[in-house]
Specification:
By secondary structure, the chain is an alpha+beta fold. The protein has two domains: about 55 residues, PGBD-like superfamily/PGBD (Muramoyl-pentapeptide Carboxypeptidase, domain 1); about 130 residues. It has six helices and nine strands; from the N terminus they run H-H-H-E-H-E-E-H-E-E-H-E-E-E-E. It has a seven-stranded mixed beta sheet with strand order 2-4-5-9-8-7-6, covered by helices on one side. A two-stranded antiparallel sheet has the order 1-3. The longest helix is centred in the middle third of the chain and has 14 residues.
Length: about 210
């Protein structure tokens, strides 16, 4: 594969952008390697533990990109570092009351074991709401309700309840009832379910 970097143009850059988008980069496939593409390359290199994190796409980075869906692609599960890098690249923030990412502690916010499709769903949500600030307050850590489509199984993320996110959900998706605990439910065409839990939105990504 051709080594490409900031300033490169052409089919190899388009191929790079297509591959990065499979990891949730959200790049326009225009064949122009600019600052935005470089930032996504650096985030990907960091998430895969590649060295150096230089934004230059050489053999090692191409191999990592083309190695299949694996643990960071369109299927499977992610480590906390992999998911965090993906969210960081997309402009999604996260907070932890315990300032930690240990999955076994309920005061942490952890992404260990998060489904890749859940991470991709969060990135797609961020792209849909544009400049609205998205902040994750809950991931796969212990302390959430159990079940098949649960936080622990990597299907759910909690998002801080802010006006622009609430307006997007209630104005775009269909109100489909009320959960047994009183939370209003909204369902997207994709099947993703948004539950208003007061201080945050509990989102189930079923894709």
């Amino acid at each position: 594969m051709v080594t490409v970097s900031n300033g490169s143009n052409g089919p190899a850059v388009k191929a790079l952008q297509v591959q990065l988008d499979k990891y949730g980069a959200g790049l326009a496939v225009d064949g122009a390697f600019g600052a935005g593409t470089e930032a996504k390359v650096r985030a990907f290199q960091q998430s895969k533990g590649l060295s150096p994190v230089d934004g230059i796409v050489g053999p090692a980075t191409w191999e990592a990109l083309l190695s299949g869906s694996g643990s960071t692609g369109g299927s499977g599960t992610l480590t906390h570092a992999q998911a965090a890098a993906r969210f960081n690249a997309a402009g999604i923030g996260w907070v932890s009351s315990g300032n930690c990412s240990d999955r076994t502690r309920s005061t942490c916010t952890s992404f260990d074991g998060l489904r890749a499709t859940t991470a991709n769903g969060a990135v797609a949500l961020k792209q849909a709401v544009g400049g609205c600030t998205l902040t994750i307050t809950g991931g796969t850590e212990t302390g959430h309700a159990s079940g098949t489509y649960s936080h622990g199984n990597g299907y759910k993320l909690d998002f801080q309840r802010v006006a622009c996110l609430t307006s997007h959900i209630t104005g775009t998706f269909t109100h489909t009832g009320t959960r047994s605990d009183g939370a209003a439910l909204y369902t997207a065409p994709s099947g993703n379910i948004y539950a208003d839990e007061g201080s945050h939105w509990d989102v189930t990504f079923v894709g």
